[in-house]
Amino acid sequence: MSSAELRMQSYYASRAREYDNVYLKPERQADLREIERWLPPIFTGAHVLEIACGTGYWTRFIAPAAASIVAIDTAPETLSIARDRVPSDNVRFLVGDAYELSRLVNGFDAAFAGFWFSHIPKARRREFLVGLNSVLGPGAKVVLLDNRYVEGSSSPVAARDPDGNTYQTRRLSDGSTHQILKNFPCEDELRVAVAGLVEVAAFRSWQYFWAFEYVVAPAP
Question: What is the CA radius of gyration of the chain?
Fold first, then answer.
């Protein structure tokens, strides 16, 4: 795990109790209500792998529609909150690494990653997507949901590295500051990332968020 990824893991562990504050921003409420209605039907009856589930904010909307969910995150602190929030018999919360998905039982027919893809270094995007496909069956549905950069609402980009990754400086309520990798990929970048791995892909956006849906192609 790189130093940037270790810093991010430490940040989200420290941020657990204030993790959901980002969902309270007044200007984002209309988008969030629309996404909360749009997302669950995609996973009706599906066996879902959720990546980087955090505090279970999105798990709680998907769980009533899905047949089952295995939701993973690297931070036990956020998983503790998620377990209290979604006490459902069809959901399992596990400590897990998004780059080590082969350790999970495969055969999921759907996957969801909310606000995770933006934290993947550009050089590891393909690695993550290939690993995800390895635990999904052909024809599995995948939804990536994430932030658009909106001036005045998003935290400013504070730095950029030689690979083109961008970083934000985040401040927690304890006064600590953390530099976090946060990319804002466009539709073309997403399509390049999944080239050859998917059969169907669709991009949609709201004022503050975007979603990328695709269907996993059969292995060559």
Answer: 16
In the block, residue with structure tokens 């997507």: 129
Amino acid identity, residue 127? E
What pTM value is reported for the model? 0.92
Enumerate domains of the chain plus CATH numbers.
Answer: 3-152+185-216 (3.40.50.150)
Give tens-digit pLDDT for 174-209. Answer: 888 888 899 999 999 999 999 999 999 999 999 999
Q: Can you tell me the distance from the alpha carbon of 91 to that of 167, in angstroms, rounded to the nearest whole number?
A: 33
Q: Helices 3-14 & 76-85, crossing angle to 10 degrees?
A: 40
Query: Strand 177-181 and strand 166-171: pairing?
Result: antiparallel
Residue where the block lists tokens 């503790």: 80
Tokens 């993947």: give the residue. Answer: 120
Residues forming a β-bridge with 47: 68
Q: For the residues of 107-174, what is the DSSP string, one character each?
A: -EEEEEEES-GGGS-GGGHHHHHHHHHHTEEEEEEEEEEEEPP-TTTSPPEEEE-TTS-EEEEEE-TT
